[in-house]
Amino acid sequence: MTDLSTSSTGLDSSSTGWANESSSTGALPGTWEGPIPAGLVPYGAICFIGVTVFTAMLTWYYARPKLPPMVGVLTFLAWLCAFVICFLVPIDLIPGAGDTLDTVWSVLFWNSFLLMWFIIPLASGYYDNGCFTFKQKMRSSLRTNGILFLVAGLIGVIGIIYLKAAAGLSWDDVSGLAIAASNTWGLLILVVMAGYGLVEFPRTLWNMSHLQRRRDEVCYHASAVHDEAESTRDELHHTLTFLRLYQTRVDDTNDETLQMYFRDILNEVREKEVELNSLRRRAGAYDKEAMEVLEELKKPDSLVTEENLMKLNYHVKGTVKHLSLVEAQWRDGVKEFVDLDAAIGTEGRSGRPPVGLSCFDSFMWYVRIRFLRRILSVSAIFSAFLTVLLIWMEFFLPFKFDASPLGAIIKSDAVRNNPLALQLFSVVPITYLSICTYFPLFNMRLSKFYYIGPHRTDEGTLLFNATFMLRAATPLAYNFVLLLKMDATALLKFIGVINVIPFFGGSFTQVFPWFIFVIALMTLLNVWSQLARLLNMERFQYVSTSGSELSSGSEAFQAQRETIQEGRKLIELHIRNEQRQKEQVALNEERLASGTATMLV
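RESULT FIELD:
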């Protein structure tokens, strides 16, 4: 197996001429003249296989049961394209490797381009509608995305004509213009995502290391999620009542096609109907605006048509999806509460895992219960150090002088001549920058539309996540190479003519790191929480004596404590009910077994 150490791999300086010879040849700093490192291809293949396996496991971990296979494949491909930069950029920094990566960057970019601008939007439109047949779904998706494609195409044509006249571009430069335009748009997304994630990721780790505070946050969110779940169940209950009445009108049409479509609608809601019946709850009031489609179909002059059934199907699918998302949030919150409660209960005391656990489960018990606080604290401190380093480099990037500590380390002879050191000092920071950039996409919750959780993520969320990860991936790699102030890379050569776009290709590429700094500063000062409070949007805040967080004794603090206590009571009630159900099932099984034994006697 190929190793990256200088003793066993083909990437050693003695066999490849690794050292930078600019001092003796007069070459520019950062350039390379010499043979390609012998172990480059095996090392790249090993990295690719590792990232592929990781991406496949991550896709399996987040995908919900019965996820459409096409969504799983598209998500896997999109995440793979986004994750490979964590080892592809460090390889690009190896002296002599740039010439071999021109084709790799080209294939990676154009695959990503097709996925994020054409294939995934079409797939998203295909699954997010109320149509019944493949042909209907594709027509709806093409109609929805066709408008966007048309507008983008018109803007592109106008831009090409302008740039051809202003900058003297030839038609052969159109592909380069597409690369520059996509990268420029991605930089705007990167500014927001990286600026937020670089601060919020280490802060989240630190807050999670304070287990009691994290438990309070879980209880706080549980209260809102529980109320939303109850409201959505009411909507679904009234929808089911309407479907039972509407079925008579569908049957009266004697149209087999319409009746088949209505059966598809009933199948969409069948599982949730069983769950609602098992709860034996009365339906409460519902928001008529949320049930606008049903109110329209209730009118006597409303006919049973294919179009109306599509509207009804879209409403039913949306309501079922909404309930599934909030129920997933509730279950994940309960599970986290149980784990945190167990960890807090064993703090300062010796404890052993429950009897009967496997070796792996026992190890995970120790990690989760005994060492969770320490792991999170150390991770938060190390993450904060990397954040300060990267934001420092972002702030000074627009200046002509080199203030990049990481770039100075990587360009030093001691690191450039050591393959292991070069990869270590480049893989760790770009992987961390990637984690922080993608962190908002995995931490964001929009109850009705977006929630990503283990084995609970639906197709709409996965496709949305995949699209924005792809759009940020290449700009992220571009930004990291700029931070190092190393020009002799295949990536910068491939991106090429980004400066042909007015402002966004020139001035913006020079100052966009300052926007990352501004977003990061606003996140650090909790500006988003203050804006949410002004807009009457409730958001959990940690108690602190500083003015940037919630101060104890204030009215907001008292209201938050009441919400936390309410959420805790709801979770504990849910746990007790589940325990009683398990005991009842065990008792029924015991009675059944004893009855069977008596009959045999």
